Amino acid sequence: MSAELILRSKELFARVFQEPANVIVCAPGRVNLIGEHTDYNEGFAMPFCIGKYTVIAARRRTGATCRITSAGVPGAISTFPGDSSLSPGPEGDWTNYVRGVVFGMLPMLPGGSCAFDAAVVSDVPLGSGLSSSASLE
């Protein structure tokens, strides 16, 4: 895990949201040695992690609004509801991966809603078959 990615995510969060993050999470990219596209079809797969990561610096908010920014989209903050009014963003919007996770978690959350600010930094190459979307989720 790269200390540089952690530092970059914390700095991005503080710059965009004007306060420090109090949660840092990370997940690696991965490759499938065997079983590409078989795992979700009840087949066998043998994935393994690589030395590239997605790091998210975050902080819980009050209310039901989620705000997210990414080093890959400088200066942009995407906002979406963290409650039953949540819907997909425009086709191809990278935040749809995050929206999907929030949507899946809503039934398990107290009050059926959540709110957070998050800053994403990653060195997992996009579109390279290294599961950058899975590491974000």
TrEMBL record:
SUPFAM superfamilies documented for this protein: Ribosomal protein S5 domain 2-like
Species the sequence originates in: Emiliania huxleyi (Coccolithophore)
Record's protein name: Galactokinase N-terminal domain-containing protein
UniProt GO molecular function: ATP binding; galactokinase activity
Galactokinase N-terminal domain span: 11-60
Gene3D superfamilies: 3.30.230.10
Pfam annotation, one family: GalKase_gal_bdg
PANTHER family with a match to the protein in the record: GALACTOKINASE-RELATED, MEVALONATE KINASE/GALACTOKINASE
InterPro entries: Galactokinase (IPR000705), Galactokinase_CS (IPR019741), GalKase_N (IPR019539), GHMP_knse_ATP-bd_CS (IPR006203), Ribosomal_Su5_D2-typ_SF (IPR020568), Ribsml_uS5_D2-typ_fold_subgr (IPR014721)
Keywords on record: ATP-binding, Kinase, Nucleotide-binding, Transferase
A GO cellular component annotation in the UniProt record: cytosol
Tree of life domain: Eukaryota
Keyword Nucleotide-binding belongs to the record: yes
GO biological process per UniProt: galactose metabolic process
Transmembrane segments: none
